[in-house]
């Protein structure tokens, strides 16, 4: 596998299973060079975010990308390999799969509640698989600017988009959803992909002005403008809290972070990596108050002025940003026959079916069986898994009997440094760390003597290699993880 230049265009030339093929070299998600990724059989995995592409067709086979790659003609003659590209392909780094349109007279209706990645991929997959019925995507947002595709795309492929609507109830027997404006929509099949919302603090003062949650692009803009030049306090030391703290370092007057554990990310990434992330931000003058929590928010003229901690410390604050977890958007299902778990996530099987006929769920709101954990029920709030679930739901709406097999893959960025994570490490008992330098490592998370997750910093494509190994069904033992040589990982 190597990158070659054809007509000033970078192309990935692959020799796999005795054949040569050529596809675009830039991952359609964020432009990573696939030549530095992982080749396994007929697919290549992106070294940055784990998207997978078929090397024979360029088709997207694993997310978070949403587009396919161009595929080019290859000819072998006189022991030389020739790649030819037509002029149209030369200008394109992405490709859409062929999609059908609605056919008049097909009276089926798929109703998608929610407009995020799960719904988008579900809608696209249906059209790619020649579903010619009606597709309606309903979401409670005020602007089409949040959509993952341009509105023209939805029009072109006969996907109806309805904004400003929130589902308030579902009658699963009559197959009717009622919305907050009093309107109703019948369906043949339903996808519940309403996601989650940010959890709010429950202490006094929580409704003062300048208390911010991060849920939408508009929230991000508000946080930016409200924090510039001001004393910013952040509660929560997982992904949202730490990313916001990192972003605000050179913008806010001061940045203070409050966490309930000894170190950031302690439950997910462990003590050593938590220490590292804390030190990274502390060196940029971020102040941490760990093993603490907020008991009261004091205000002046309706705005935040001080944050009172359980320890008795009082912190001055112009802005308070809350990043303490999420709550599933499933209240509208209460009273329906759709089964929820104790935390109010929608329970689905490996086909993304709920307990109710013709009702599916996908994305952050779903509790699903994770194949790599022997079908243990989990909820994963990440882009890639939501997309995979949307595709699985669509295929099973068409009775394809496809099971969800994806491995969770996500990332976070602090001070321009990207931490990559694969697997599901909840309940891990040991962490095996492989350090190259202070800012370069690979960590394995062990449970029941097997690797259940891995995280890296500046160690590409290690996490993609681990993802491929886990996806292949070959367990990584604790002994392998602990070995001084990790040649089994086949790092380039």
Automatic annotation (TrEMBL):
Molecular function (Gene Ontology), one example: 2 iron, 2 sulfur cluster binding
GO cellular component term, pick one: cytoplasm
Presence of keyword rRNA processing: no
Keywords noted in UniProt: 2Fe-2S, FAD, Flavoprotein, Iron, Iron-sulfur, Metal-binding, Oxidoreductase
Residue span(s) of domain Rieske: 1-83
Family the UniProt entry places it in: Belongs to the FAD-dependent oxidoreductase family.
The protein's name: Apoptosis-inducing factor 3-like
């Amino acid at each position: 596998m190597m990158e070659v230049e054809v007509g000033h265009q970078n192309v990935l030339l692959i020799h796999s299973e005795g054949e040569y093929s050529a596809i675009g070299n830039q991952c359609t998600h964020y432009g990573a060079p696939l030549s530095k990724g992982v080749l396994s059989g007929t697919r290549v995995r992106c070294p940055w975010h784990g998207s997978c592409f078929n090397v024979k067709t360029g088709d997207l086979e694993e997310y978070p990308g949403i587009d396919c790659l161009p595929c080019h003609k290859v000819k072998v003659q006189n022991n030389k390999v020739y790649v030819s590209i037509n002029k149209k392909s030369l200008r394109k780094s992405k490709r859409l799969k062929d999609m059908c349109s609605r056919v008049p007279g097909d009276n089926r209706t798929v109703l998608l509640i929610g407009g995020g990645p799960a719904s988008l991929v579900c809608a696209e997959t249906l059209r790619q698989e020649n579903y010619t019925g009606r597709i309606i995507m309903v979401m409670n947002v005020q602007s089409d600017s949040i959509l993952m595709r341009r509105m023209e795309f939805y029009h072109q492929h006969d996907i109806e988009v309805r904004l400003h609507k929130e589902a308030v109830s579902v009658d699963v027997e009559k197959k009717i959803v009622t919305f907050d404006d009093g309107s109703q929509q019948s369906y043949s099949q339903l996808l519940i992909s309403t996601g989650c919302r940010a959890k709010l603090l429950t202490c006094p003062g929580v409704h003062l002005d300048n208390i911010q949650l991060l849920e939408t692009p508009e929230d991000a803009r508000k946080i930016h403008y409200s924090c510039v030049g001001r004393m910013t306090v952040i509660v929560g030391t997982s992904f949202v809290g730490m990313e916001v703290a990192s972003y605000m370092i050179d913008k806010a007057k001061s940045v203070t972070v409050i966490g309930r554990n000894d170190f950031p990310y302690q439950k997910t990434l462990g003590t050593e990596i938590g220490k590292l992330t804390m030190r990274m931000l502390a060196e940029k003058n971020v102040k941490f108050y760990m093993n603490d929590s907020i008991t009261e928010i004091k205000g002046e003229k309706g705005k935040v002025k001080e944050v009172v901690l359980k320890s008795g410390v009082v912190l001055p604050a112009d802005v308070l940003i809350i990043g303490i977890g999420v709550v599933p958007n499933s209240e509208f299902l209460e009273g329906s026959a759709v089964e929820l778990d104790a935390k109010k996530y929608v329970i689905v099987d490996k086909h993304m079916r709920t307990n109710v006929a013709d009702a599916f769920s996908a994305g952050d709101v779903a509790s699903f069986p994770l194949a790599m954990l022997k079908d243990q029920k989990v909820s994963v709030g990440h882009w890639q898994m939501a997309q995979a679930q949307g595709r699985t739901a669509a295929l099973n709406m068409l009775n394809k009997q496809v099971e969800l097999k994806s491995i969770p893959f996500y990332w976070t960025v602090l001070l321009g440094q990207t931490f990559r994570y694969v697997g599901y490490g909840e309940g891990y008992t040991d962490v095996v760390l492989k350090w190259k330098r202070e800012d370069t490592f690979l960590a394995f998370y062990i449970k029941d003597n097997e690797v259940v997750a891995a995280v890296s910093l500046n160690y590409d494509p290690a996490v993609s290699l681990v993802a491929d190994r886990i996806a292949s069904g070959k367990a990584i033992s604790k002994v392998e993880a602990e070995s001084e040589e990790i040649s089994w990982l086949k790092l380039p």
